[in-house]
Amino acid sequence: MRIRGVVAWLAALSAVVAACVLWAPASWAGTHKYRPVIFVHGFSGSGAQFETQARRLTGNGYPIGLIESHDYDSLFQINTREQVYAGLDARIDRLLAASRADKVDLLAHSLGTGLMQEYLRSSPQRAAKVAHYVNLDGSSSADQPGGVPTLAVWGEGSPDRQVGGAVNVRFPDQSHTQVVSSEETFAKFFEFFTRRRPRTTDVQEERGNIRLSGRAVLFPSNAGADGTRVEIYRVDPRDGERLTRRPAAVFRIGPDGSWGPFKARGDAHYEFAVVWPTSVHHLYFQPFRRSDALVRLLTSPPGEGAAALMESGPHHANLVISRQKEWWGDQGVAGDSLKVNGTELLNPANTPRSKRAIGLFAYDAGVDRVTDLGAPIPQFFAQPFLSGMDVFLPAGRRPISVVATPRGGGGERDVLTVPALPSDRHRISITFDDYTG
Fold first, then answer.
1. Three-state SS at 131
2. N or C: which end of the chain has fewer CB within 10 A?
3. Residue 292 and residue 59: Cα distance in Å, rounded?
4. Per the UniProt entry, what are the Gene Ontology biological process annotations, in alphabetical order (predicted)?
């Protein structure tokens, strides 16, 4: 069963291209030196792919209200290209009016680069509102789209890819999505936008409380999870258990999926619970460290979407583990490690470098209480950027420990521990940072 078929029901929904929360204090309107920045994702992507770069931008002086993502359904079942473009027109006009900037800076990845090249060429009026365009590991072009000054960043793959007349930069050791989130890419586009080098390429902790905001959306359409409720709890990092019975914040989700802002601690661990009528989807992240308006809570209605492909039951837990940087299980010491309760999940069969896997689905396939990592689960491995593992995780009092040792991190480990909730009533998603340090 393919995910495209599972999500076909979304075709009946109206097009949703929602705005992120705009934090735009009057103190900088019309006076700030930076232009608004808009990111356009690729196939099955979302604004989450630009979260790290947004944190780096704010760490270098950008107001958070100037940084947005233009989310859309990359399957084009609930929106057309023309609707995506019309929504982008409205977003640009709104940001220009709020900031009083002359133009915006635009970035796109993968499928999004083809869309944005077409968009910039569609009319001189559209191109005239864009100061700079960044083409991230996507479509080649004979010239700069719409005549807009262009930076093209390429990762692994053919060295013949280029955008004619643009600044073409190559990182052959970086994978497709890694190109979006890497600090090397950040340094290049920051200088391209501002004509100076960034003060830092690290994600530095923000002093005092931070504010979090974003959207609860259906994967992969990015339609709002209308009718749900988002509850936010601070949790104990040792076991993932909630520290209070009552949530720190509750948001009712409407058609656009927006929630927030929520005042949080940058060093704390939080659970975001998307409450459906018959089940709860629990989402866990590493400490955010900085204010973030691009938090995406990817979910689906019970029994639909990707969740419908995972076998559930009262005796085992199901996990979805993601990171905006591909998991490499076939590169030896140059690759990644991901252990769940001490068992290494990654191997050459389920996460070869060529698979470009970002999202990993781990559950008891066959509900036989047996872990079998000899081959990936076919219905997930057949999808772009996904893989699946047959892992038995007993539900019960013993929490689930997930330990990632990312490549290039000098052995640094990222640890998230979550409750082992039974999968017949609960779903668990874990998101690791795509950077180290």
1. strand
2. N
3. 11
4. lipid metabolic process
